[in-house]
Amino acid sequence: MKNTQWKLRDAILLALIGIIFSVIYFLMDPMYQIISGALTTVGLQAFAGELTIGVWMMAGPLAAYVLKKPGTALLAEMIGAAGEMFLGGYWGVATLLAGLIQGAGSELGFTLTAYKNWKLGLWLSTLTGTVVTFGWQYLQSGFGNYHFGMLLLLFAVRYLSIFFFAGVLVNWIEKLLDRSKFLRTDND
Amino acid sequence: MTLKVSDVCFTYRKETLFSDFSIEMASGDFILLMGPSGCGKSTLLKTMAGLYPQYGGKITGQVTIDGQALTDIPANKRAGLVGLLFQNPREQFAMPTVEEEFIFTMENLQLAPDTMSNKIDRVLTKVGLTGFRKRLLSELSGGELQKVALAEVLLTGAKYLLLDEPFAAIDPQARVELQQLLKSLANEGYAIFVSDHDDHGYLDKMTAFYQYQKQHFTEVAQADWPKKVASQVVAVQKETLGRPIFQLKQLVLENDQRLLIEQAQLEMKSGECTLITGPNGSGKSSFLKALARLQKAEGQLTYLGQDFHRWKKKDYYRQVTLAFQSALDQFLDITVSEELQQVQKNTYQKNYWSTERIERSLHALGLAGLGNRSVYTLSGGQQKKLQLLLMLVMASPVLLLDEPFAGLDEQSVGVVLALLKEVRRDLDVTLVIVSHQIAPLAPIVNRHLALENAEFVDKEGVAV
Amino acid sequence: MMNASQRLFLALLLSLEIVLTNSLSFNVILLLFFNGLILYQGLPLKRYLYCWAVGFIPAIGSFWSFYLYAQGDLSHRLHVGLVMGSRVFLLIFLGAWLVNKTKEAVLLQSLQQNLHLSNTFIYGLIAALNFMPRFKQAFQNIQAASQMRGVSLHWYQPTLYFKALIQAIQWSESLAMAMTAHGFQEGAERSVYQTYPYKKVGFAWLALVLILTIGLLRLLPY
Ligand SMILES: Nc1ncnc2c1ncn2[C@@H]1O[C@H](COP(=O)(O)OP(=O)(O)OP(=O)(O)O)[C@@H](O)[C@H]1O
Ligand SMILES: Nc1ncnc2c1ncn2[C@@H]1O[C@H](COP(=O)(O)OP(=O)(O)OP(=O)(O)O)[C@@H](O)[C@H]1O
Ligand SMILES: [Mg+2]
Ligand SMILES: [Mg+2]
Question: What is the reported pTM?
Answer without folding.
Answer: 0.86
